[in-house]
Structures are given as C-alpha cells and as structure tokens.
C-alpha cells in the first residue's frame, strides 16, 4: 500500500518524538551515510545527471557530488560543538542564576529541491537538517527524473528510512506534502512556487526558508582586469548551460572597455568549447524543450543591436548555443526575466551610477558581481543582493563560513555550514535559578505604594 503524505509525516514524527534523531552519533552516522551514498555511487549519479541535463562529467562531479560531500563532512565535523548549550551573560537583577541557549531540532522538516543541481540542492539542505537533528522529508524535482529516482532508491541503503523519507513526483505530490504540518520548510526554486510554499506554510505557522533566483548582474568597470573578468563571467554564465541560480544573468560594461570585453568573452568561449560548442562534451543542455523554447522567445523578443556570438537554438535537441548579445536596452525581452540559460546580454554604461540605479530599480538579485579596482565598494554600498563577489563569480557560495541565501525577491533565510545548522534549529532560551533562591518581596502583589517607590 502506498503511504499517504499524512501517514508519512506521522511516521516520521513518531521517530522524531522517540528522540532518536537528537542523538549526536545518529546525526553523524546519517551525514556519513549521505557522503558515502554520493561517493560509492559516483558513476551512476554522473550518468543520471547526464541523462537529465546533459551535464558534463566534471561539472556534475564538482557541482553536485564533491560540493555535497564537502558540506556533509563539514557539518559532521562541527555539529558536536554547535549543538552544545552556550551560556549567556546575566544582568544583576537576574542573579543568582544561569542563562543558556540550547539548539534544539525543529522536528519534522521538508526540503523541496529544483532540477538544476538536483543532487547538491537536495543533499545540502538535507545535510543541514540532519546536522540539527531533524527528521526530514525530501522532495526531489520531477524535472530531473533520472536523478530523482536514483537518489530515492539509494537512500534506502544509506540513510535511516524511519527518519528520512524521499517523495518523488510533481505538483500533486508536493501539494499533498504542503498540506501537512511541518516544523520548517526549505524550498529552492522559482518565486511563483515560492509564494505557493509560503502560503501553505502560513496555515500551520511553519517557518520557511525560500532559496529563489533572479537576474544577477555582473558589472565590469573600465579599470577592471578584463582577462580575469571575461574568464570568471564565462565560468558563471556557461557552466551548466547557464542554469545556475547564481549565474551571471547579464553584464554591464563601461563603454571604454565594451569591445575588448566582448572579444575576450568570445575567446573564452572558443578556448572552452571549441569552434562548435554543440560538439563539445563540456557544454550542457537545457533541461527540457519548454525551457529551450522559453529562452528562444527571449532572444526573439528583440530590444538589442546584434547577436555577437552564437544564437543557434534547437528546441528538440534542447540546445542553446553559448550566446552573446550586444547593444541590449534595459527594456529588451532578455531583461524582463531571469534568463536561466547560456545567453549573455551585454549593456554599456558611461558612469557606474547607471548600473547601480538600474539594479536598484529591479528586484534584489541573488548574486552581484563587480569587477573594478576603484569602484567595487561604491557598487556594494549602493546596492543589495543575496551575496556578492568582487573580481570573481560564484565563489560566495562555497566557503562554509558564508551564509547562502537571497534578499527580497531572491528569497529569505540562509543556509550552508553553521548557517544551515542554525536554520534547522530552534534556539531555546533557558534560565535557571538556584533552588535556594527566595523571590524578592518587591515583585509580589499586592503592589503597595512603597514597593512602587523602591522599584
Ligand atoms: P522546479 O520546476 O524543479 O521546481 C522546484 C520544486 O518545486 C520541485 O520540487 C517541484 O516539484 C516543486 N513545484 C513545482 N511547481 C509546484 C507547485 N505548483 N506547487 C508546489 N510545488 C511545486 O525548479 P524551478 O523553479 O524551475 O527552478 C529554477 C528556479 O530556481 C530559478 O529561478 C533559479 O534561479 C532558482 N534557483 C534558486 C536556487 C537558490 O539556491 N537560491 C538554486 C537553484 C535554482
């Protein structure tokens, strides 16, 4: 008999209430199991990622497998220290006494993952939830079906299935899950569904972390190291065929260095993928025909001078060539939504205040990249974004000491490293009085005029 969403959550809640998941050794065993699952089955996982997304081997290994193992291992090493009660200072009126903060698991939590890094964006929130001692329901994306099926099957051999469950499926299955009461939900994906998740969670007053997307800009100033900028932008735009939440969506470049940057980007493309990127084993595909057609629609929408590089789209082959579009106007179709594909619009500016103003006119991006010797802080101080890099791209995501999360339309809440442990923990304030302490008569009714004067 297939277990309903309600039965599943009830079963996991029973496990949670037994106290099993609070045990630090249990948490470490699950995290080791997760790393082991990914390491032992590397070839199968790489094959599934190739089937779902045409992911090049190296990108799949680095972005999905190695990054997930790194996060799980980091959490395993540190959770013992983080889970200890921390003492808090007490002002005089509260003494004698002791105060502490205890990190308690929230309970039964839900992780809803997208398709673009279908292992990493499932495994890393799962790892954080486990480090904090929760029971977890994982909902992989139906748009990466081979990976979803494989991870669900393997989980049974590596993880405690009384406390960690995988639910495959699409909108119907997610909707059924969202009707249940969870103690925290971490959702990664687009903002429209993010709102659906937040709405469903509100019914149960469930706290939510929303990891969304947006149009993340790169700004290249006239004093930037252009070789470095082109290389880092190429990495962030064309890895995973641009289907990365923190990819460079578009580039603002100073007029004086516009042509040189475009030429350097062209060179980067040839060096990376050869003269025919379609034939390169290192260039990925779009997840499905619907998204391929959507990207073609953005290109066909005009509002720019020329396609300087690429431009080929094969909807049936889910192929979009790495593409550079120049002379892009702020009202072009390409600027109307997150591109989430390998098309790079280039916009020129005369003064750094122009991109700053444009960025502030739009939604707060998930990431912002600035290449400049003198104006980096001006850009950082004049804007906001989930995270940012100066003279680099995407590196804000990897150090476990940095929080990963959005702001405004790019989401709220954060995780990675200790930030993930915090997200999936409740901070319980505990105050202890010594047993011998006698309450001062001052705080006790009846509150006489004399007591008021003394107080
Ligand atoms: P997706 O279509 O796989 O959806 C994500 C999850 O939502 C899936 O598990 C899916 O089953 C579920 N879902 C879809 N429709 C639903 C509905 N109506 N009700 C309930 N659940 C539903 O992924 P996507 O949204 O196409 O992902 C791409 C977007 O995610 C981009 O905007 C990207 O920037 C963003 N993203 C953000 C991050 C981040 O960490 N901030 C990471 C990756 C992607």
Automatic annotation (TrEMBL):
CDD domains: ALDH_F3-13-14_CALDH-like
GO molecular function terms listed in the Swiss-Prot or TrEMBL record: aldehyde dehydrogenase (NAD+) activity
One Pfam family cited in the UniProt record for this chain: Aldedh
Active site (UniProt): 211, 245
A cellular component term, taken from the record's GO annotations: cytoplasm
Domain named Aldehyde dehydrogenase: residues: 4-428
Any one of the GO BP annotations: aldehyde metabolic process
InterPro entries: Ald_DH/histidinol_DH, Ald_DH_C, Ald_DH_CS_GLU, Ald_DH_N, Aldehyde_DH_dom, Aldehyde_DH_NAD(P)
Keywords, sorted A to Z: NAD, Oxidoreductase
Family: Belongs to the aldehyde dehydrogenase family.
Stated name of the protein: Aldehyde dehydrogenase
């Amino acid at each position: 008999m297939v277990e309903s969403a309600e039965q599943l959550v009830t079963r996991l809640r029973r496990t949670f209430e037994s106290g099993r998941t609070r045990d630090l050794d249990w948490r470490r065993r699950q995290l080791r199991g997760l790393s082991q699952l990914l390491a032992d089955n590397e070839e199968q996982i790489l094959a599934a990622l190739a089937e779902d997304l045409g992911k090049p081997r190296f990108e799949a290994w680095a972005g999905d497998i190695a990054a997930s193992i790194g996060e799980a291992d980091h959490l395993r090493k540190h959770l013992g220290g983080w889970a200890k009660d921390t003492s808090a200072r007490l002002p005089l009126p509260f003494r004698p006494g002791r105060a502490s903060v205890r990190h308690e698991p929230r309970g039964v939590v839900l992780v809803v993952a997208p398709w673009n890094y279908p292992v990493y964006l499932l495994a890393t929130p799962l790892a954080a939830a486990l480090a904090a001692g929760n029971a977890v329901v994982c909902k992989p994306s139906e748009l990466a079906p081979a990976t979803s099926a494989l991870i669900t099957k393997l989980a049974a051999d590596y993880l405690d299935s009384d406390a960690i469950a995988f639910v495959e499926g699409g909108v119907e299955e997610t909707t059924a899950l969202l009707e249940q009461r969870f103690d925290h939900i971490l959702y990664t994906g687009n903002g429209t569904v993010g709102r659906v998740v937040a709405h469903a969670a509100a019914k149960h007053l469930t706290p939510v972390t929303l990891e969304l997307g947006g149009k993340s800009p790169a700004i290249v100033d006239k004093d930037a190291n252009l070789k470095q900028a082109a290389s880092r932008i190429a990495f962030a735009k064309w890895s995973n065929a641009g289907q990365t939440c923190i990819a460079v969506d578009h580039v603002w470049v100073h007029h004086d260095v516009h042509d040189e940057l475009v030429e350097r980007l062209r060179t980067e493309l040839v060096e990376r993928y050869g003269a025919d990127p379609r034939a390169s084993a290192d260039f990925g595909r779009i997840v499905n025909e619907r998204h391929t057609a959507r990207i073609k629609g953005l290109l066909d929408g005009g509002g720019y001078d020329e396609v300087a590089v690429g431009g080929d789209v094969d909807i049936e082959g889910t192929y979009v060539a790495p593409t550079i579009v120049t002379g892009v106007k702020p009202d072009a179709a390409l600027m109307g939504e997150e591109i989430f594909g390998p098309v790079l619009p280039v916009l020129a500016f005369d003064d750094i205040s122009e991109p700053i103003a444009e960025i502030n006119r739009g939604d707060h991006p998930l990431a912002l990249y600035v290449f400049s010797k003198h104006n980096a802080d001006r850009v950082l101080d004049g804007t906001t974004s989930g995270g940012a890099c100066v003279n680099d791209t995407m590196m804000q995501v990897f150090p476990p000491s940095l929080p990963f999360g959005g702001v405004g339309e790019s989401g709220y809440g954060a995780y990675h490293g200790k930030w993930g442990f915090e997200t999936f923990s409740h901070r319980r304030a505990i105050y202890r009085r010594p047993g011998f302490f006698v309450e001062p008569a001052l705080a006790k009714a009846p509150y006489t005029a004399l007591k008021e004067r003394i107080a």
